[in-house]
Amino acid sequence: MQVQPDVADVSGVIRYARPRASLHLRAALVLAWAVALVVFVDLPLWLVGSGRGLGSDSLASFNHHMVFADGWVFIPRGHVLGDFERVGALRRFYAEMHGEWIPRTIGLGILGLLSGLGLQRLLERLGGRFCWRREQLAIFAWLVGALLLIRLNLMFLPIAATWTPVAAVLVPVALQLDRRAVLGCGAAVALATALMIPPVDPVLGATFAVQAAALAVVIPRRRGAGWRWALRLASSCAIVTTLGYVAAQLLVFGALDPLDLASAEWGRLVGALVAGLLWPLVGLALDPLFERAVGNLSRSTLLELADLNNPILQRISTRAPGTWAHSRAMANLAESAAHAVGADALLVRVGAYYHDLGKADEPQFFIENLARGVVSPHEGLAPKVSAAKIIHHVRSSVVRGRATGLPEPIIDFMHTHHGSGRVEFFYQKALAGDPEGVDEADFSYPGTKPQSPETGILMIVDSVEAASRTLKAPDQRQLESMLRQIGFSKLMTAQLDDCGLSMADMRRIIETLIDAILASSHERISYPWQEEEAREQEAQAKRQVPRTATIADGGSGAAPVEYEPSGTLPLGAAPLRVIAARDDEPSASPLDGAAAGDDAPGS
Question: Are 394 and 462 in contact (CB under 8 A)?
Answer without folding.
Answer: no
